[in-house]
Amino acid sequence: MLRYLTAGESHGQALVVIVEGLPAGLRITVEDIQIELSRRRLGYGRGPRQRFEKDEVTLVGGVRHGRTLGSPVAIEIKNSEWFRSDKWHKEMDPAPGATADPLTKVRPGHADLAGMQKYGFTDARDVLERASARETAARVAAGALAKALLRTIGVEVISHVISMGTAKSAGGQRPTPSDLNQVDESPVRSFDTAAGERMVTEIEQAAKEGDSLGGIVEVLAYGVPVGLGSHVHWDRKIDALLAQAIMSIQAVKGVEIGDGFEVATRRGSNGHDPIHWDEATKTFVRTGTLAGGTEGGITTGELLVVRAAMKPLATLNKPTLPTVDVITKEAGVSFKERTDVTAVPAMGVVAETMVALILAAEAQRKFGGDSVTEFVRNANSATQPL
């Protein structure tokens, strides 16, 4: 089974991810990972940190001469800001000591207070450094490997922003894998140019007011084979796995498979994807994506559609959220750490990653194989009865 583990803090020396379960022979390079990490930094409304904090990738183990060995792959992403700033050397020093400036005014909407209560901390930085969305860089690095594995069996995972604030894209416009460059070239990663312009306007208005903006991203997986996931056990249902993965992304508060919420308003006679037999391809096909490419916890072979809703970021450029100092108990406003007006476009790349990791893990479970050649052969020979 494909699995991974990340480690590291936002302003620490580096993020690290170890990916286990990849078959031998998968072609991967530092440049492949760097491309995905660069995509994560995209998006209008990002803060100045994106301009000077670079993702310096090192493949530490599990890859030789551009191909995986079947052993765990270890990736390190150095934090250039830590190496450049004496402040972070002192604040994040792993040696025994203490900070001279603890953060005690917790931020509403963050993990600060709950994490401090859970672990008995008196400095919010002990929580926020790991809770930070910076951790998703390690996930994106792992996702680059998952995407490479999925491509060997013809699966491509992409995303686009469909709404931000009150600006929404027109329904029915979905990019294909060949459109991904066009999406990434949009300042807000919108496939709908007109909607993208309205999103930029919303961001600019929020920025003027020192506020933040949330939105919704749609992830699309093309070429997904039939049969990933299972109806047998609750924790192997593909839509449940996808929902957990998406909800694990920082600031995501809602997930939808297909047209889940809209379908809930319909009657059953108009709420399901009709099934037909395609004589030309000798396959069953469904007309529509209401179910989002899953039925009964199993992929159907149709387009997989997952949406993620991200709340407005809780750290504001103009701090106004009421809070309390955990030491003095005095009322005040939450402190400001460097922040973005919005991170929705970047979240789309992270959501792609999480979908790819789930699909790759379930493909490995279904098809197995110690080498990529064996994995592809097993996938190509898999048949569905009827």
Descriptive notes:
By secondary structure, the chain is α+β, with helices and mostly antiparallel strands. It has one domain (3-258, 293-381): Chorismate synthase AroC (Chorismate synthase, AroC fold, 4-Layer Sandwich). The chain is built from 13 helices and 17 strands. It has helices spanning 30-40, 49-52, 80-84, 86-91, 112-119, 125-131, 136-151, 180-185, 193-208, 238-247, 260-263, 344-367, 372-381; strands at residues 3-7, 14-20, 55-61, 63-64, 67-68, 73-79, 156-164, 167-168, 215-222, 252-257, 275-278, 283-286, 294-295, 298-299, 304-310, 322-324, 331-333. The strands form 6 sheets. Strands 8-7-9-15-10 form a 5-stranded antiparallel sheet. Helix 12 (344-367) packs across helix 13. The radius of gyration is 22 Å and the shape is globular. The mean pLDDT is 93.
Write a concise keyword list for the protein shown above.
386 residues, 21% strand, Chorismate synthase, AroC fold, 4-stranded antiparallel β-sheet, 13 helices, 17 strands, alpha+beta
